[in-house]
From TrEMBL:
Protein's recorded name: Putative zinc finger protein
Pfam families found in the cross-reference section: zf-HC2
InterPro entries (alphabetical): Anti_sigma_zinc_sf, Znf_put
Superkingdom, natural source: Bacteria
Species, as recorded: Umezawaea tangerina
Keywords: Membrane, Transcription, Transcription regulation, Transmembrane, Transmembrane helix
Domain Putative zinc-finger residue range list: 10-41
Listed transmembrane segments: 93-114, 121-139, 166-191, 198-223, 243-261
Length: 271
């Protein structure tokens, strides 16, 4: 059957009857033609009514029930910006990102209530605040649709980076506003924040992003946050002199993420 021609009556009858002599490639060609040719579909319906009245009766009953069950109004569609936003992050990430934002706000509130001489709690927690959202960025445990997402062509590093960007866009403005009120220099918390975020992705290529975020958060809390709470000075890791080292960590982590980008899309990778 060539393009631009219609299916002949004999071929339509053979297709309807499921004739064993009809080659599979011819059957596929008929089906492909019927998908794009309204005239042939109508002719096939006429053949069904003449040769298969019982089938035509069943189809008529099915369509009647479908039309009766059809709602008067079509289902409302989500706004375009909502559909676009979901291409960047799934709804399941929302609670985790919100948790990070709430932690930053609680730390900010505590900083407003304590004497100025003590270590700002927000400065201590700012580096690990994004880890709440990063943990859910690429995790089978936290995303019920992870397997479907991992099977799409866009899966892998691209999806991880998009979701991580959403986390940073949500968290960094909150930290910036809170830091401005408490008098913290943005560089003191921004570079460590980026270092922990990219570091979680780099370590995640080995142990999984969720585990990496949890491990880095625990290490920072135990060895930096907890010992610094009784002190009246900020830890050395969060001073101006440590910023070049944080920058090196960011660069090194980026190199690891790029070099091991395929691990995010590997079928046997850890999530």
């Amino acid at each position: 059957m060539t393009a631009g021609k219609h299916v002949g009556p004999a071929l339509l009858a053979a297709y309807l009857a499921g004739a064993p002599a009809l080659p599979a490639e011819t059957e596929w060609a008929v089906e492909a033609h019927l998908e794009n040719c309204r005239d042939c579909r109508l002719r096939l319906a006429d053949v069904v009514r003449v040769r298969e009245p019982a089938l035509d009766l069943v189809l008529g009953r099915v369509w009647t029930e479908v039309e009766a069950a059809e709602p008067e109004r079509p289902a409302p569609t989500r706004p375009a910006w909502v559909r676009w936003a979901r291409t960047w992050a799934p709804p399941t990430m929302g609670p985790w990102v919100l948790t990070g934002v709430l932690v930053a706000l609680v730390a900010f509130a505590i900083d407003l209530a304590v004497p100025v001489g003590q270590s700002p709690l927000m400065l201590l927690l700012a580096p690990v605040v994004p880890l709440f959202g990063v943990a859910a960025a690429w995790s089978r445990r936290f995303d019920p649709l992870h397997e479907l997402t991992a099977a799409t062509p866009a899966a892998g590093l691209r999806t991880v980076l998009r979701r991580t960007t959403v986390v940073l866009v949500a968290v960094i403005p909150v930290l910036a506003v809170a830091g401005a009120f408490t008098g913290l220099a943005p560089a003191l918390w921004l570079l460590p924040c980026l270092a922990f975020t990219v570091g979680a992705l780099a370590l995640g290529t080995v142990v999984g992003v969720g585990r990496a975020a949890l491990a880095l958060g625990l290490v920072w809390t135990v060895f930096v946050v907890a010992p610094s709470l009784p002190d009246e000075v900020s830890p050395s890791l969060l001073r101006q002199a440590a910023l070049p080292w944080w920058a090196l960590v960011v660069v090194g982590a980026v190199v690891v993420v790029v070099a091991r980008a395929k691990s995010f899309a590997a079928p046997g990778s850890r999530y």
